């Protein structure tokens, strides 16, 4: 069982940013409206995620360390209409197999919370504890028992940078949730959590950049889009300032990138890219999120039709001559 978890960990847990991703996605799935992520030494010494979500019962606080003990999926048929970010029931067991963890959690309706200590996949101790409603997971000494994996880690600064990019994307994915990032005790980012994509984008890209961005609000045959795209004068030398979300999930898509570029036609010089945040909603059965375990690549049904409609939807608000 520990071995299976360590193998799964090889897919899910590569470095601090992958741990943060899984923990924050769990917080979002738990309905949290406030999430705090704290890194010590870029997450190499410690990662802590605090949320105000639904919390866990004492039973679930023990069960969640077992593989596939997910509470989120009941039948194979559910796989085609996943509404939660997690569904494999592998993240917590995987992380626990390669680190030392403390879970502190309380469901709103319970009087007492539960604290569970887990190390290398083994539950060391569990006890009732007084704590706020919600869940806190603290991960220490990542890869302490798999020294070979530590070699692939970068500097604290580089690891923290990756987490920071992830937090930006998660904030843009969920403007309704206040997400805060602390690094070595200092607050380095927070999103307003007021539901406004523009305010959230201002926190991520800077207010000056966002002020002139154009709103996209499209309701079409195959999908809806809400988002912000920059005027042709405001471009960047990389695509790093483009975030695409399908049904709330951050995705990478060469198709969407190239259609976006096409929408600007010859208005922007080669090697330059617009800033963009696009939320696309479409029928979940038209998106396959099972392509990769980290679920960033997606496969779309009707790619060609989607591309055509997307080009029209993005070109219109740009209103280029
Ligand atoms: P998955 O997200 O695929 O269900 P995980 O291993 O990430 O699997 O989590 C296992 C289970 O632990 C979840 O299904 C959920 O019931 C519980 N859980 C994990 N994190 C939280 C959290 N922050 N708040 C409430 N429940 C949580
Ligand atoms: Mg999960």
UniProtKB/TrEMBL annotation:
The keyword DNA damage applies. One of its GO terms (cellular component) is mismatch repair complex. It comes from the Bacteria. One of its GO terms (biological process) is mismatch repair. Keywords: DNA damage, DNA repair. One of its GO terms (molecular function) is ATP-dependent DNA damage sensor activity. Residues 201-319 form the DNA mismatch repair protein S5 domain. Belongs to the DNA mismatch repair MutL/HexB family. This protein is involved in the repair of mismatches in DNA. It is required for dam-dependent methyl-directed DNA mismatch repair. May act as a 'molecular matchmaker', a protein that promotes the formation of a stable complex between two or more DNA-binding proteins in an ATP-dependent manner without itself being part of a final effector complex. This is DNA mismatch repair protein MutL. The lineage of its organism: Bacteria, Bacillati, Bacillota, Clostridia, Eubacteriales. The gene is mutL. The chain holds residues 9 to 329 of 627 of the full protein.
């Amino acid at each position: 069982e520990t071995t299976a978890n360590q193998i799964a960990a090889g897919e899910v847990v590569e470095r601090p940013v992958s741990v943060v991703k899984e923990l924050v996605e769990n917080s979002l799935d738990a309905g949290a409206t406030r999430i705090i992520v704290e890194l010590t030494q870029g997450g190499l010494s410690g990662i802590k995620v605090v949320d105000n979500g639904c919390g866990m019962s004492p039973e679930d606080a023990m069960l969640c360390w077992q593989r596939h003990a997910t509470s989120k999926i009941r039948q194979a048929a559910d796989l085609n209409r996943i509404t939660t970010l997690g569904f494999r029931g592998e993240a917590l067991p995987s992380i626990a197999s390669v680190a030392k963890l403390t879970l502190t959690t309380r469901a709103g309706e319970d009087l007492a919370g539960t604290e569970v200590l887990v190390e290398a996949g083994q539950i060391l101790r569990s006890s009732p504890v007084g704590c706020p409603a919600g869940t806190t997971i603290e991960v220490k000494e990542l890869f302490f028992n798999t020294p070979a994996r530590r070699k692939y880690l970068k500097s604290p600064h580089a690891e923290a940078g990756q987490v920071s990019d992830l937090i930006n994307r998660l904030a843009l994915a969920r403007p309704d949730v206040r997400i805060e990032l602390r690094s070595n005790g200092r607050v380095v980012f927070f999103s307003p959590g007021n539901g406004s994509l523009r305010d959230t984008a201002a926190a991520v890209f800077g207010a000056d950049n966002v002020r002139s961005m154009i709103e996209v609000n499209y309701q079409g045959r195959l999908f809806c889009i809400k988002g912000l795209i920059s005027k042709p004068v405001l471009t960047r030398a990389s695509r790093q300032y483009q975030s695409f979300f399908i049904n709330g999930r951050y995705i990478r898509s060469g198709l969407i990138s190239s259609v976006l570029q096409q929408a600007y036609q010859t208005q922007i010089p080669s090697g330059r890219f617009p800033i963009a945040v696009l939320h696309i909603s479409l029928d979940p059965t038209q998106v396959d999120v099972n392509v990769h375990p980290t679920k960033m690549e997606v496969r779309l049904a009707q790619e060609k039709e989607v591309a055509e409609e997307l080009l029209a939807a993005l070109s219109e608000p740009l209103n280029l001559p």
